[in-house]
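STRUCTURE:
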């Protein structure tokens, strides 16, 4: 089977309130990209992926006037995808939902956040001392992770978590001191979210559930100068260690090569420096009991993956569709 995670930049802007695709020449929310250019590019990328399930990060909005599931089903019809059903969990107010688009002929999927004594559900509050002042702080997710029960047509049941952790970017900072203050505060909150997520994973593993955790973690080892203040990145916290550690080969490679080249899954234009910044932000982590099922990971990077590079149409589509690139996992289930 093939699972994938894909952060689609401002996918919400491609639909109207009825969930119909705005496949026209108006501007999308991507810089200098029309809606028809982005929708056509996304169609090509999703068709090339041909995944049994795609965890979509920044999926269309779900609110009083908009329906994530209907929008994604309309997109699947437009793109002629076999992954034509969709599910979301706890919606949020950021217009960027987390949703799974999947093939109902091979998977049964249910939003099913179990109750664990040591870690509340992702729409609740997590108490932790963030700044070592002996006072419990309350942590919430602006984008609550999507926790699913997934069963294959062969009868294998597993738990899947889709995540979009808080960004560390110092939005709103006006000077260097504010950049430092906001960056440290954001990293502290992100690490608390990672601790919360790891506690949920530990609960699932203790109950004997295979786990696949995927999404945009907005972090990776060595990505900013504040990481050393806290000792570990959120990626390391979520992966864990020992017999219950989750595994992702790209994360492992990055951890082992802090001063060397690492894989990347996202590409951002840095206007003040007039250059692109590439980063490893998107992951698919699996529990130990799944590592023996012949897992193969792939980052669909248009410049780094030879198969993508050798197909100019797909290469250009990957660049046009989003500032992130899909990550896929092929695994025998």
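SEQUENCE:
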């Amino acid at each position: 089977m093939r699972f994938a995670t894909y952060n689609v930049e401002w996918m919400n802007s491609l639909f109207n309130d009825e969930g119909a695709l705005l496949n026209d020449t108006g501007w999308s929310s991507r810089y200098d990209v029309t809606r028809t250019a982005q929708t056509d590019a996304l169609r090509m990328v999703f068709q090339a992926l041909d995944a049994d399930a795609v965890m979509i990060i920044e999926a269309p909005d779900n609110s009083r006037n908009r329906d994530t599931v209907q929008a994604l089903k309309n997109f699947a019809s437009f793109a002629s995808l076999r992954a034509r059903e969709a599910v979301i969990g706890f919606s949020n107010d950021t217009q960027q939902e987390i949703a799974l688009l999947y093939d109902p002929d091979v998977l049964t999927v249910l939003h099913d956040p179990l109750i664990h004594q040591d870690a509340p559900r992702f729409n609740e509050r997590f108490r932790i001392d963030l700044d070592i002042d002996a006072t419990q702080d309350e942590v919430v997710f602006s984008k609550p992770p999507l926790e699913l029960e997934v069963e294959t047509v062969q009868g294998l049941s597993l738990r899947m978590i889709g995540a979009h952790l808080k960004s560390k970017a110092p939005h709103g900072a006006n000077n260097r001191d504010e950049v430092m203050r906001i960056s440290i505060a954001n990293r502290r909150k992100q690490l608390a979210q990672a601790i919360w997520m790891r506690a949920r994973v530990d609960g699932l593993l203790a109950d004997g559930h295979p786990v696949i955790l995927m999404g945009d973690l907005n972090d990776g080892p060595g990505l900013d100068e504040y990481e050393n203040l806290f000792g570990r990145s959120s990626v390391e916290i979520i992966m864990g260690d020992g017999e219950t550690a989750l595994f992702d080969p790209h994360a492992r490679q990055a951890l082992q090569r802090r001063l060397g080249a690492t894989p990347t899954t996202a590409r951002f234009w840095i206007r003040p420096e007039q250059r692109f910044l590439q980063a490893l932000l998107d992951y698919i982590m699996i529990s130990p009991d799944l590592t023996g099922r012949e897992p193969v990971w792939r980052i669909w990077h248009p410049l780094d993956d030879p198969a993508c590079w050798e197909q100019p149409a797909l290469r250009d589509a990957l660049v046009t569709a989003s500032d992130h690139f899909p990550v896929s996992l092929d695994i025998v289930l």
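REMARK: The radius of gyration is 19 Å.
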